[in-house]
Structures are given as C-alpha cells and as structure tokens.
User: What shape does this take?
Amino acid sequence: MTKHNPYNFLPLQPTGRNETNTANTYAPEDMIKIYEQQFLIQVPEEELTEFLPALKAFYDIDNHTLDVSAIIFDAIADSAIIYNHKIKVGDYQILGELIEEAIEYDEDNKGDESAENKEIQAYTLECQRTFFLSMM
Assistant: This one.
C-alpha cells in the first residue's frame, strides 16, 4: 500500500519506533533530508497550513523528531549556505578526550544545598565532522 504523497516527499526507510512507540525513528542523514524538505519543496501559499501535518504524517513523526532533525541539520550545516545545495555528510572524527565542564548554579538556587550536592556533571567532546557540498 502506497502512502498518500501529494508533495512528492522522498521515500525514506525508518530505523524503528521511538521509546513510547508514538513516532518512527530515522538515521541522522535521513532526518536531515526530512528537515530540508520543509524549505526545498515549493508549496502554494494556500496549502502552507497543510504541508507540515502532511510531512509529519508521511514519515509518521512528531514535533520532537522534527526538532531533533533541526538540531542535527544546524549542527552539521552551521557555516554552510544550504539553499539549492545538497550535503553529503561524512563521519565524525574525535579530536580529544572528554572534557569536564563546571556547572554554574543560578542565584536563586545558591542556598539550595540539595542542588549543589547532587552529583551532576556535564562533559564536552571535541570532534570534527566532514561534509561535502554538491552544487548540482
């Protein structure tokens, strides 16, 4: 059975379902393709309110999945201009070890010993990701 596809969305294969079984999950490179379609597919103005629900229904995703797609897209393409370009994403290369970050407490919680006594630690990891632009 083929899905209703009035906007010619790219057919993508989900990797499974999320933990609560409410939406499909996709590989990061496919999540980028889903996100890009919001900007690359021309939609008549009178259909704009129908487009996003159709996108979510076609891929069986929710708002959270779309938000994660946007984060992945922004992280990879932070300094690239994406208009009419395709991005092929390479692998991550880890450049160093985990770096412990100091956690700052806001002024409202300064006296709250329970907040400061909790064992909370944030880390960063320096890495590099390769991506290729195709001008086709």
In short: The first strand starts at residue 16 and ends at 17.
